[in-house]
């Protein structure tokens, strides 16, 4: 029986890398989609050392065709996608009076729109029991005005997850946003590894009582 597969979109050294490691430790093979080849190489070596078979691709996920092609290649190679984890967001330090409309739309294309792209590309390779997960943030409810576009992205991507979950549930696939209600740190309750544990717990729940948002408060 082939091992389950997770595709991590926006793969990097933070939460997304910790999610990849958490699933690899549970016996998943891993596909990584990111923007930095060196980071992907380092993460690949780590995951392979944990026994995972790893594929990776460098792509700008706001380039719809490039992102679709990368995810499709992963699916065709593995024959299945069991979990799709979406991590990208843009941090632009501009308040609402200095943020241009074009900049806001550019950020939303990354933090929200790209989720549509990769889910649509992954869907043909997903079956009942499949999961879509997203790294959410308390910025959706408590935005910092100094980076106004981030709150818009996190509110938008959470809303989109709700719609995705309702749509995919018809085929036994569920979607969830894990809302991190704290600031990421190197120590304590909000390290990337602790957040990854929350993602694992949210994704592996039974369908009974499923919710499309799970808050992580560091507990």
TrEMBL record:
Record bears the keyword Oxidoreductase: yes
Name by which UniProt lists this protein: SDR family oxidoreductase
Pfam families from the UniProt entry: adh_short (PF00106)
Entry GO MF terms: oxidoreductase activity
Protein biosynthesis found in the keyword field: no
Transmembrane parts of this sequence: none
Top-level taxon of the source organism: Bacteria
InterPro entries reported in the protein's UniProt record: NAD(P)-bd_dom_sf (IPR036291), SDR_fam (IPR002347)
Keywords: Oxidoreductase
Family statement: Belongs to the short-chain dehydrogenases/reductases (SDR) family.
């Amino acid at each position: 029986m082939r091992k389950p597969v997770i595709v991590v979109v926006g793969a990097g050294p933070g939460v997304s890398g910790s999610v990849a490691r958490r699933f690899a430790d549970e016996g998943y093979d891993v596909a990584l989609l990111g923007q930095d080849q060196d980071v992907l190489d380092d993460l690949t070596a780590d995951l392979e050392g944990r026994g995972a078979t790893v594929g990776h691709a460098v792509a700008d996920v706001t380039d719809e065709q490039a992102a679709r092609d990368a995810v499709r290649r992963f699916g065709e190679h593995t024959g299945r996608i069991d979990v799709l984890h979406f991590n990208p967001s843009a941090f632009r330090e501009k308040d609402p009076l200095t943020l241009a409309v074009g900049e806001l739309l550019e950020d939303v294309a990354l933090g929200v729109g790209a989720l549509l792209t990769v889910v649509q590309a992954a869907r043909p390779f997903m079956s009942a029991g499949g999961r879509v997960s997203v790294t959410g943030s308390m910025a959706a409810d408590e935005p910092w005005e100094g980076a106004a576009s981030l709150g818009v992205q996190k509110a938008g991507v959470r809303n989109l997850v709700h719609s995705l979950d309702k749509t995919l549930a018809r085929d036994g696939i569920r979607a969830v946003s894990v809302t991190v209600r704290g600031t990421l740190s190197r120590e304590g309750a909000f390290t990337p590894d602790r957040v990854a544990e929350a993602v694992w717990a949210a994704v592996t729940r039974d369908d009974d009582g499923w919710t499309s948002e799970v808050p992580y408060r560091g507990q």
